[in-house]
Specification:
By secondary structure, the protein is an alpha/beta fold. Helix content is 36%, strand content 10%. The protein is built from 14 helices and 12 strands. A 12-stranded parallel β-sheet has the order 1-2-3-4-5-6-7-8-9-10-11-12, with no helix packed on it. Helix 1 crosses helix 3, helix 8 packs parallel to helix 9 and helix 10 runs parallel beside helix 11. The protein is elongated.
Length: 338
């Protein structure tokens, strides 16, 4: 009986951990106040292994919370979201990186005082996002990706000082990459993006919004090499022409943003119709070259189209919901300008 009682106690702890694993971080903290058994279970690294703790828009210092002795087990969390948490700086991130043994996700979107000094200590991340962190350069990004071989998501939107050096590091060290966002990274070129698309076969999402310096080579590399690609955004790419899509091989592509790609025409729609049967969303905002013929061709090969942005497409004469519903059996709506 005595041995059986010890087994039951162990099983009870396992059961509590299993329950706590499925609660949100705040509910886990609340549950830890039930009794000592719940408290002990809540301090297990297993409980926090899949949790992401959010300090989004938090105006006080996260350090004041995470450094409290009775909350230190939160540092076992697999991820932290500090989106627009203005108090996050290098000294705090260095402390966090030193004390978070299971950290795999780090979001510092809008934390504009963070510099390379903190990122060089980041290791084994799987997801990293640094929207509009204008003090980060190649030094920090290269260090981070070279020490995170399992990186799958890298969002550098608005990190305007990074160059091809960061992309070459991704190509060399992060073959499992699935998402890359380099919106407004104007110092990157076709060669850098091509290196990534050649070396990262699992890439499913590639966002290059407002990268007007990029051209056909970038798009050709994406549509030829990234067979798993589901979303491609090249909004605002005047250097991209129909040539970029001649050998499209994106059987899984669902979302395509060609807004303000003013030098593509019906030929691109013909190629998409032939090679992108899963396409659901297409943005053509500001394109004066596509016509009714292009849309009709698109309908012949892309029967799953649900959303279209035809704002400013003066060559399309009839884009009412009724007409588009007749062309595309799954059509739901015309997208507003954005």
């Amino acid at each position: 009986v005595h041995g059986g009682q010890r087994t039951f106690e162990r099983m009870e702890g396992d059961v509590l951990c299993h329950i706590l694993k499925h609660l949100s971080p705040i509910d886990t903290i609340r549950a830890s106040q039930v009794n000592k058994a719940w408290l002990d279970a809540s301090r297990s690294p297993i409980v926090w292994r899949e949790k992401v703790v959010s300090f989004k828009n938090y105006q006080k210092s996260p350090h004041d919370v995470l450094s409290r002795p009775f909350l230190r087990h939160i540092l076992y969390a697999s991820g932290f979201d500090f989106t627009f948490c203005n108090s996050v700086n290098d000294s705090f991130l260095l402390w966090l990186l030193e004390n978070s043994s299971q950290l795999r996700l780090l979001n510092i979107d809008g934390c504009r005082t963070v510099t390379d000094s903190a990122l060089v200590n980041a290791r084994n991340l799987e997801r990293f996002s640094a929207y509009w962190n204008t003090q980060i350069t190649d030094k920090g990004v290269v260090a981070l990706v070279s020490q995170s071989p399992s990186l799958t998501h890298l969002h550098l939107s608005g990190v305007k000082h990074v160059t091809n050096a960061s992309l070459f590091a991704v190509a060399a060290d992060c073959s499992q990459l699935r998402e890359l966002d380099i919106t407004r990274c104007v110092l990157m070129s076709d060669a850098g993006v091509a290196a990534v698309t050649q070396s990262c076969p699992s890439l499913t999402r590639l966002v290059m919004y407002a990268c007007s310096q990029l051209g056909n080579e970038t798009v050709q590399g994406a549509v030829r090499n990234s067979h798993n690609l589901e979303e491609l955004d090249i909004c605002g790419s005047p250097n991209v022409t129909d040539e970029a899509f001649e050998q499209t091989n994106c059987q899984n592509l669902r979302i395509l943003n060609l807004a303000w790609c003013v030098n593509v025409s019906n030929k691109t729609l013909f190629a998409i119709a032939r090679n992108c049967p899963q396409l659901e969303t297409l943005r053509l905002l500001g394109n004066r070259n596509v016509t009714d013929e292009g849309l009709e061709s698109l309908a012949s090969g892309c029967s799953k189209i649900r959303e279209l942005d035809l704002n400013g497409c003066v060559g399309v004469t009839n884009c009412t919901h009724q007409t588009l519903s007749q062309l595309f059996p799954k059509f739901e709506r015309l997208l507003p300008m954005h």
